[in-house]
């Protein structure tokens, strides 16, 4: 059985805002560190980003999230995927650190596609981009 501490769908508000909502619901006042380069993206997305193609909701999503985003490096163009609302309805969830390997084995056993894109940190309701 997969033990999930918290989860959210990833749809119109972009990954960053969905993750921010997820951690703001946490009474522990936790934050997240995420690695955008680990986020799987469809073929052609990076090319579209380089050409400046953005959804009409991109700017609003970015403005809402930006004050709660902390960069530990310089922003790069691929970071724009964090604010883009065009997703395929993936799910983000937080699992207990001590059960991570057990949970990953379970997901693999049932051939459920997943990617570890980050971890819980102690930044109060902030997302650190590494």
Please sum up the structure shown:
This protein is of the alpha/beta class. The chain has 4 helices and 6 strands, in the order βαβααββαββ.
How would you describe this structure to a colleague?
There is one protein chain. With 130 residues, this protein is an alpha/beta fold. The chain is globular and about 45 Å long. Helices cover 27% and strands 17% of the residues. The mean pLDDT is 89. The strands form 2 sheets. A 4-stranded mixed beta sheet has the order 3-6-2-5. A two-stranded antiparallel ribbon has the order 1-4.
Write the layout of secondary structure elements.
Layout: E1 6-9, H1 14-24, E2 31-34, H2 45-50, H3 58-65, E3 69-71, E4 91-94, H4 100-109, E5 118-121, E6 127-129
Parallel strand pairs: 2-6, 3-6
Antiparallel strand pairs: 1-4, 2-5
Helix pairs in contact: 1-3
